[in-house]
Amino acid sequence: MNKKVQQNITTLHKDISFNGKLIGDERIIISGQMEGNLQTSQDLTIEKSGIVKADIKSSNLVLSGILVGNIDSKGVVTITKSGRMIGDIKSENIIINAGAQYKGTILTKASSKLNSPNKESPRKNSRLKTKR
Which residues of 80-111 are buried (b: 16+ CB within 10 A; e: fewer)? Predict the structure, then answer.
């Protein structure tokens, strides 16, 4: 028995401009302009025509447009070749395609483990001696 799962999608079309706080539990696609805060437990796509000035919390994120703001993602952040971003990214995995433009700081789960205050740097404990 095949069951189709209906997925709710919220779309801000390219002729729509939104200013404020957008919170939801469904997939969001932005082709227009948005400024404020955006939070979804699902995936977010900012299309090539999309211009967003916002701090974002989402599952996976695909950026093909312009984003000025910070991302906090539980999944994968992908910046496509047409994507441009200024801001910080915190995510499990990050993909920046050739041609994409990005300026900011990246923090992944792996990098946060490396910088954990409970772990000492391997250099501090190194007893390697060299001949002079």
Answer: bebbbbebebbbeebebeeebebeeeeeeeee
